[in-house]
Amino acid sequence: MYCLLLITLTTALIHGANMPTPQPHPFLLCTREQFPELQARAEREPWRAMRADALARAATGPASASAMDLHQYLGAVALAYILDEPHRATHRERVVTAIVNRLEKVVFDETQAHAGVVPPLGAAFVAILALDIVYPDLTPEAIAACEAVIEKQITKIARTGGWASGRYGTHGTWDIYRGIRREPDDRYFQDFTNQMTDDGFSTVSPAYAFARLGAGQDRPQKCAYADVLEFTGIDRRYYNNDRLKKFFRWLNSASVTPARQFHLFGDVSPHWSVPRSPLLWRVGRFDRQAAASAAWLLAGQKPPGHILSYILMTEPLPEPVVPRSQLFKDGGAVFRETPDSSDSLGGLLYNITERDEWHTHEEVNGLSLAAYGNRLLVNGGWLDDPTRPPFMNNTVALNGHRHAKRTGAGIVEGLLADGFDYACGDSGAALAAGTFFRSFILVHGRPGLPGYFLVCDEITAPPDMKTHVYWQTASTNEPTVVADRREYRSAVNHHARVPGVSLTTFFGTEPVQVTTAKLPSGLLDRDPQAGHHFRLEAVYATGPAPILTVLFPHTVQQPLPGALARIAGAGCHGARVGADDVLVSDGITAARRDEMQFVARLVVSRADGFYFARAGRTFRRSTVGFESAKPVSIFMDGTTGAATTPAASQVTVYHPHVTGVRLDKAALNPRETGAGWMRFDLPPGTHSIELLTER
After folding, report:
1. φ and ψ at 621, to 5 degrees?
2. Rounded distance, CA 600 to CA 614, Å?
3. Tens digits of per-residue pLDDT, 430-486?
4. Cβ-Cβ contacts under 8 Å for 103 (sequence gap 6 or more)
5. Is 163 exposed, middle or buried (0-12, 13-18, 19+ CB in 10 A)?
């Protein structure tokens, strides 16, 4: 008898060593000891409003039988349980009833694709969190009933498969709840971080970046599983991850236009908008700079009463910081005029270098433009292969062929200066038979001339191949031909918020042919609201000189600056835009136009000392300009500007009153000086320039 008892105890001890140690509940997002502090938050905003919202939602019940409404209800009731002590028993019973009676009726079915997998798992994820919170006040029978429903429902969905993070988030949280997972979840971490470039730029689309990691209203588990892993201490690779910090900065600033609409690239429908997710409000957990951008993005909105917003938002969003122009070498360039106005011009040059996936389009060096409260261009839209080819997006194709890759070589150079933004993207291996560099410029508005966009495409391809440049105008009307193969005007009325906006597309380089076509703005079988738009397609013979396009948005209040005109000179051609001369050449031979002389691929100049040269060796206009031993890209507006160069060079600047030069705010010792000029060493990289003058 003694021997049998000893064997039994030994066996129990051995098995017990392998059994999970029970955790005291709650422990997934908060502990019982934190309840007083959570209750105290409700004495100030925004938690006071969240408390009121949670109590109201808990009293009225789910808005419908949908999985999304169930997760919002459970999140509110669990919060009410923490905050509303006098009625804690009522809220406890509401959680149990919602799980046992309502989650039981949610359809978990892989054959229904996304609708049968991700939203149901989202509801189950919040159900697990809610059960964890009310657990200490439940009877063993109530706990068993809730756990049985959750277990039965989520096991209908395999742990791996499509929408991977949606599976990992719910199954992983359930494993933590049961004490099974005590180690980091590497599959989830890889899936989470693979959705962005190293510098934080989304590789899919702004819409999917928000839906997955923002996170969308119907898929909280995709992102909030990271918060569970962090709080439990099982995996603390998220809040202090540099790539994620950069991503959330990008998400809350560079992913949207000045009017807070999605920039259109990748899989995104033109009628979608930024979701009102509880998780948007806890971005400060990752980065305070991103939180300041979120304060701008979410201006005028209040966080919902939900455990994910209330518990995870530990301090109010800081003072809002208005987004500015930004360069992401592995993802793209995002430009915007500085006034914080929905009327401001904004644009995005898209060129990711890595981690493309199913929702990525063939739009290397693609563009998204916005002005006066509207988007000016659309893209292929959403969903499936018909939306992805280059001819459905704002990019280039050789002989109309599809791209070989959905990734390029990134942003190879750029300058951000007061009143002027420039970036150049390299297509890398995206085009099977050639390459193209796309220079994108935003000339900010100034008195007498509204802002506008410039695009310069430099194509390298066999001479028998034609270059097709596509412009997907945000217009449901066929463009008006102002001048054949030169100027086309489009009414911006495709999902427009503001009436009376137009876009003039001016071909500074004359195409061989321009055609228009009416195209679907997405896969209409799945997204009939996307509608149609008209595309401009310009075809060019491949040649040594770049292709210049001017895109000028205008309204009745901000009209075109008179007639746009083509201009030409020796070895160059281009366009006159108000007082600005924009010229392109082969960048090798000396070009001349009136009083201008230059060797550069692209020049933007006006008579008041404002000039820009891309990959230039020299530019002179009257008494101002520069010379460089090696090609540099340089912008000057009077005595201030910037320059970028891949290799060190000697640069001579010309200005009638120059007496010194500051580079990156530090005074230089010049190599040589003379009347009206100064020569200095320009190191590799991007630098600010200030000319010191005697006046």
Report:
1. -140, 110
2. 6
3. 999 999 999 999 999 998 889 999 999 999 999 999 999 999 999 999 999 999 999
4. 70, 123, 124, 127, 149, 150, 153
5. middle
Q: What is the DSSP letter of 657?
A: T
pLDDT at 61: 92
**In this predicted model, what pLDDT tens digit does every residue of 24-59 receive, in sequence order?**
999 999 999 999 999 999 999 999 999 999 999 999
- Predicted confidence band of residue 11 (pLDDT cuts 50, 70, 90): very low
133 phi, psi to nearest 5 deg: -70, -40
Single-letter amino acid code for the residue at 284: G
Q: Are 310 and 279 in contact (CB under 8 A)?
A: no
pLDDT digits (tens, 9 = 90+) for 149-171: 999 999 999 999 999 999 999 99
What would you report as the CA-atom Rg of the chain, rounded to the nearest whole angstrom? 29
What would the two tokens of residue 497 be? Answer: 């918020």
Q: Give the separation between CA 451 and CA 448, rounded to whole angstroms.
A: 10
3-state DSSP of 270-334:
CCCCCCCCHHHHHHHHCCHHHHHHHHHHCCCCCCCCCHHHHHHCCCCCCCCCCCCCEEECCCEEE
What pTM does this model have?
0.94
Banded model confidence at residue 20, pLDDT cuts 50, 70, 90: low
Distance CA 587, CA 641 (A): 21
Considering the domain delimited by 23-237, tell me its CATH architecture.
Alpha/alpha barrel (1.50)
Q: Domain 324-561 belongs to what architecture? A: Distorted Sandwich (2.70)
Could you give the C-alpha distances from 458 to 27, 246, 508, 541, in angstroms and in order? 58, 31, 14, 12
Unique residue bearing structure tokens 């063993």? 140
Mean pLDDT of 198-217: 92
Reply yes or no on whether the pLDDT at 3 is more than 50: no
Domain residue limits, the chain: 23-237, 324-561, 564-695
Please tell me the distance from the alpha carbon of residue 443 to that of residue 548, in angstroms, as a whole number: 15
CATH 2.60.220 fits 564-695, yes or no: yes
Tell me which residue of 96, 107, 112 sits closest to 148, measured CA to CA: 96
Listed in sequence order, the DSSP H helices in 426-525 are: none
Q: Which residues pair with 573 in a beta bridge?
A: 568, 584
Could you identify the residue written with the tokens 């890209």? 633
